[in-house]
Design goal:
- It holds the Pfam family MR_MLE_N.
- One of its GO terms (molecular function) is magnesium ion binding.
- It comes from Faecalibacterium taiwanense.
- Belongs to the mandelate racemase/muconate lactonizing enzyme family.
- Its EC number is 5.1.1.-.
- 52% of the residues are buried.
- The mean pLDDT is 98.
- The strands form 4 sheets. An 8-stranded parallel beta sheet has the order 5-6-7-8-9-10-11-12. A 4-stranded antiparallel beta sheet has the order 3-2-1-17, with helices on both faces.
- The chain contains 14 helices and 17 strands.
- By secondary structure, the chain is α/β, with parallel strands linked by helices.
- The protein has helices at 52-55, 59-74, 82-91, 97-114, 119-122, 141-153, 170-180, 197-209, 226-235, 249-258, 268-271, 274-287, 300-312, 323-326, and strands at 3-20, 25-38, 43-48, 129-131, 134-136, 158-162, 186-190, 214-218, 240-242, 263-266, 291-294, 316-320, 332-334, 337-339, 342-344, 353-356, 362-363.
- The structure holds ligand LRSVPJYC and magnesium ion.
């Protein structure tokens, strides 16, 4: 199966409500779609969101990295030389993890199609379904309570609540939500780097004293501040999950060796795809650090690839794959079935993506 063409397109999918974090506010998913064509007629699908504030990757940068570096590296190669392809993909340009992730998943899709096996089974997985949380954007407490109750009505029992913007309001936000939702609701929070280490310890222990019962806090401090993350992990009663601090397998190893976090969030867009995500999962297995699988604001092609990984690896014990359910429509054909919190993986060969609804993709050539 030889690679003949890398085709790019853009999709735009409106969100149900604006997505707001300590880092950004957006009202639609605007992603780059990758189609890798082969001489057998098989097509592999990938997707990358331009999450510049986290990955540094813009739409133009994703397109440029694929056109100017990645496409010329992979065109003409055989999908069966998979390890060579993965090494070449990772070596052909520095950073650009979103572009690499989109191409990596399209190649896994083709490799699975070549051997007629779903990717989660190729990775040794047996689990067919997973349960995701849903994100509540950071707003004033009243609006967050409305969004939380709406999520409960939709059947979610785990909320990932965004904080870290105007930190002085965070305890009031969480108190209002905890007081409004059913007692058994799991609540995890994500500060998206919005606190200083000392502020984080004060706020988290304040939340604990109020009995807000938080499962964990995601990325309380700046991404580069590994010492600050460790400071919080050692002093907070609320467990700490490293998100923006962990891009590469090397980052994951450093965080685990330092004991800088209790948990790690694996995202394909940060590590460059499934090939590197598997390395993070292996390191986590060695260190006994449980992982969450997360996503950026993404539509179904890329989140679907993460679903395959989550169904394959037992060390992934938490799931934040709510990109598609935050969208007001789903233009992607095939792949996992998202029935609110219940996600069922596709048993089709590869990743199971069939294409994009006609008229919903704007091809760039
Ligand atoms: C969408 C997901 N639940 C999420 O919150 N992901 C990121 C932020 C993604 C973005 O800004 O697109 C996270 O920080 O965990
Ligand atoms: Mg996060």
């Amino acid at each position: 199966m030889k690679i003949t063409e890398v085709r790019l397109g853009l999709i735009s999918v409106p969100l149900r409500v604006p997505f707001k974090t300590a880092l950004r506010s957006v009202s639609s998913v605007e992603d780059v779609i990758v189609e890798i064509h082969t001489d057998t007629g098989a097509v592999g699908y990938g997707e990358a969101p331009p999450t510049g504030v986290i990955t540094g990757d813009t739409t133009g940068a994703i397109i440029g990295a694929i056109r100017d570096h990645i496409a010329k590296t992979i065109i003409g190669r055989d999908v069966d030389d998979f390890e060579d392809l993965m090494i070449a993909l990772n070596a052909c340009i520095q950073k650009n993890t979103s572009a690499k992730a989109a191409v990596d998943m399209a190649l896994w899709d083709l490799y699975g199609q070549l051997y007629k096996i779903p990717v989660y089974k190729l990775m040794g997985g047996a689990k067919k379904s997973i349960v995701t949380d849903i994100t509540i954007s950071v707003n004033d407490p009243e609006e967050m309570v409305r969004d939380a109750l709406n999520a409960i009505d939709r059947g979610y029992d785990c909320l990932k609540v965004k904080v870290g913007k105007e930190p002085e309001k965070d305890i009031a936000r969480l108190s209002a939500i905890r007081g409004a939702v059913p007692k058994e609701t799991c609540i995890r929070i994500d500060a998206n780097q919005g606190w200083t280490p000392k502020e984080a310890v004060r706020i988290l222990n304040g939340m604990q004293e109020k009995g807000l019962d938080l499962e964990f806090v995601e990325q309380p401090v700046k991404a580069h501040d590994f010492e600050g993350l460790k400071y919080v992990t050692e002093r907070s009663y609320v467990p700490v999950l490293a998100d923006e601090s962990v891009f590469s397998p090397q980052d994951a190893l450093t965080i685990m060796q330092m004991g800088a976090a209790d948990l790690v969030n694996i995202k394909l867009m940060k590590c460059g795809g499934l090939y590197n995500a598997l390395k993070i999962a292996s390191a986590a297995e060695v260190y006994g650090v449980e992982c969450m699988i997360g996503c950026m604001l993404e539509a179904k092609i890329s989140v679907n690839a993460a679903v395959h990984l989550a169904c394959a690896k037992q060390i992934i014990t938490r799931v934040d794959l709510d990109g598609p359910v935050l969208c007001s429509e789903d233009p992607i054909l095939g792949g996992a079935v998202f029935n609110e919190k219940e996600i069922t993986v596709s048993n089709e060969p590869g990743l199971g993506i069939k294409g994009i609804e006609p008229g919903k993709i704007k091809y760039l050539d």
